[in-house]
């Protein structure tokens, strides 16, 4: 497929979506949204893809929603279009998604990273929700996902003052999974994605679904869902193979069945 604002590459079972509007620091206009979501959905339908990496440039993962595109919009327009609703479709993608973040991840950029399943950050990464300085508030889930990721204190600090946090503070706070030197960001993120893609895809999907349930439901319902999913794993060939391989002291050969 021909995209204008993103690049999509495949390497083995890992696919990488690179935001590619360098002159606008990857500001997320509606075209970027439509293309990222369409690409992710297409990759999700492809059983040969076991994990997806979403990344930006060295300077910016994404400097936010496109301010120039939305500056003059009226309430009726943004409400009528349900502006930014499209990004929620990323949460329906079942293939695991790794965000590889260098430079600015501000506003919608931070929110896009949080829509992914885990974030690997370069030591140059800067996360922030500066919407309040523009007279708006986060609109792609930031107030909710940031509060769940880093807790109320830091979320309020960031959302009310617009303060940016660096990679180390983001890791300390639980926003990012790992921090690596900037020149190792993409290889590390792709290694993590390859590792995931080497697992059984249906089992990885069950695992992702179970962790996500922790943010949607009560503890007892979540634990119940987890246990039922654990039981369901025994219906797969890959459970038989994984456990047989352990017993035989060899590496498993998963077939995603
Ligand atoms: C549109 C943007 C942009 C954005 C940068 N650009 N961010 N265009 N929307 N979010 C454009 C600039 O206008 C400029 O274009 C070019 O990218 C380079 O940016 P500079 O500002 O010249 O770069 P620099 O001085 O290095 O500063 C980098 C920066 C700054 C600190 C990241 O660009 C910045 O503060 N950007 C806005 C960050 C922000 O507020 N994001 C939140 C957006 S609101 P020209 O044409 O001049 O070269 C949001 C809302 C989500 O995400 C939902 C709620 C509604």
What can you see in these coordinates?
- Keywords: Lyase.
- With 257 residues, the chain is α/β, with parallel strands linked by helices.
- The protein has ten helices and ten strands.
- The protein has a six-stranded mixed β-sheet, sandwiched between helices. The chain has a four-stranded mixed β-sheet with strand order 4-6-8-9.
- Strand 2, helix 1 and strand 3 form a beta-alpha-beta unit.
- It is globular and about 60 Å long.
- The two termini are 28 Å apart.
- 39% of the residues are buried.
- The model has no long low-confidence stretch (mean pLDDT 98).
- The structure holds hexanoyl-coenzyme A.
- Hexanoyl-coenzyme A binds next to helix 2 and strand 6.
Largest sheet report = 6 strands, mixed
Listing every helix as H and every strand as E from the N terminus to the C terminus, the arrangement reads EEHEEHHEEHEEHEHEHHHH
Distinct bound molecules: hexanoyl-coenzyme A
Strand content: 15-25%
Mean of residue pLDDT values: 98
Count of distinct strands: 10
Termini separation: 28 Å
Q: Spatial order of the strands in the main sheet?
A: 1-2-3-5-7-10
Low-confidence stretches: none
* Rg estimate, integer Å: 19 Å
**SSE class:** alpha/beta
What is the oligomeric state here? single chain
**Shape verdict:** globular
Proportion of residues in helical segments = 40-55%
Q: How many individual helices?
A: 10
């Amino acid at each position: 497929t021909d995209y204008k604002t993103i690049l999509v590459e495949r390497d083995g079972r890992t696919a990488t979506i690179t935001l590619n509007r360098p002159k606008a620091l990857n500001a997320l206009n509606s075209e970027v949204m439509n293309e990222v979501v369409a690409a992710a959905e297409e990759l999700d339908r492809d059983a040969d893809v076991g994990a997806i990496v979403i990344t930006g440039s060295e300077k910016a993962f994404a400097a936010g929603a496109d301010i120039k595109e939305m500056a003059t919009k009226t309430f009726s327009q943004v409400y009528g279009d349900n502006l930014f609703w499209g990004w929620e479709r990323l949460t329906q993608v079942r293939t695991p998604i790794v965000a590889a973040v260098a430079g600015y991840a501000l506003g919608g950029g931070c929110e896009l990273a949080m829509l992914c399943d885990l974030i690997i950050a370069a030591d140059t990464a800067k996360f922030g929700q500066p919407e309040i300085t523009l007279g708006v508030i986060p609109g792609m889930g930031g107030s909710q996902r940031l509060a769940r990721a880093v807790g109320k204190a830091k979320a309020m600090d960031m959302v009310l003052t617009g303060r940016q946090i660096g990679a180390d503070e983001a890791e300390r706070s639980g926003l990012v999974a790992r921090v690596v030197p900037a020149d190792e960001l993409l290889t590390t993120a792709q290694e993590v994605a390859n590792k995931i893609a080497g697992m059984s895809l249906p089992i990885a999907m069950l695992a992702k679904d179970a962790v996500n349930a922790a943010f949607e439901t009560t503890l007892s319902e979540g634990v119940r869902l987890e246990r039922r999913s654990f039981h369901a794993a025994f219906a797969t060939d890959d459970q038989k193979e994984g456990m047989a391989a352990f017993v035989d002291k060899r590496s498993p050969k998963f077939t995603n069945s």
